[in-house]
Amino acid sequence: MEINRVKQILSSSADIEVQYNGASVWIDGINEENKMATVHLRGPLEERTEVAISDLREM
Which InterPro entries is this protein grouped with (predicted)? Predict the structure, then answer.
């Protein structure tokens, strides 16, 4: 995924499905310098992890 698209998703009020390694995730924030995004799994778990923006897929 491109950084600009991640920014659009973050600023959107729509529920846009994004996946990381086949799992549906919420994007919490981005680090443009490192091209990384902080995400957490959709659902009850709030564990956050940093992943490469290029590994995110919009569904």
Answer: SASP_SspH
